[in-house]
Amino acid sequence: MSINSLTVKKKQLDTYRPLPPALVSNLESWFTIELTYTSNALEGNTLTRKETAAVVEKGLTVGGKSLKEHLEATNHAAALEKIYALVIKPHKKITEDDILDIHNTILRGIDDENAGHYRSVPVRISGSEVILPNSTKVPDLMEEFAAWLNGGGGKLHPIELATEVHYRLVTIHPFVDGNGRTARLLMNLILMQHGYPPALIRMRDRIKYITGLEKAQLGGSKDDYSKIIFKAINRSLDIYLKAMTGEEQGAVNPVKTATKAPLLKIGQLAKRVGESTATIRFWTKEGLLDVAEITNAGYQMYSLGMIKRVERIRKLQQKRLTLREIKEKLEESRAE
Q: Active site includes 173?
């Protein structure tokens, strides 16, 4: 996946502009839940996608989940609203105050003492060898960061700029907590300011994402890290383009159209492929199968394409591959 290929897809999307307002609203609502769910999950939040939607959209509480996890969901959704507001501002300059405001929203009610404030203590990334800057240097580093972002950084391609902004912010690690979520929001702000959809980094890519970042922070190549971000942007571009053309989505379908292909309930899919409902549910939980839509009643619906996916899983099982190896093979076929 290259910047050139992503640029081509973005130009294809541009041919549909201005996008229909109803479609834009639908997509923004879907991305709000998906970005909130994935970004928090990367940091250890255990709310499922469905639970995140219930908390954010309906204000419900989920039994067995902590208050902190609920606040992480509502706060991230509120921070995204601030991002959408910044996207349409006449002046595209992003200030330190903007970054602090985003961070303040993320930690509001969770850690009010540190919300919207640079750290004044040393921090370490759990399980990582990366040495982070001394806290006394953080204010100056962030001032330099903001100057670069609004100066020389603007000469980069928008995708390069967004990717580099994310990398630099988490490397400075200016906050006690919430650095990753703030960095991803800032990255997506830049992408959206330049007409790209926000990047979705999936939970299944967490290890590659973290190790790619760490490799770069330890002085190695940024290629692995950049590849994850580029794939995330590509995934979102595909969602927008397929929504415009009415094509069936392989992932969660953010748009309901009159010509949408029929969907199957979990029991119907199980019957069609000759598997138990428990097996389909397990494969879904492990990321081997994609849910196309969740109904208002909470039913998971699957596209007809999942029938072929099951056939693919069976063939891979016959090769005695591990679950992880099957995931990797399926991911490779999706990226082709």
A: yes
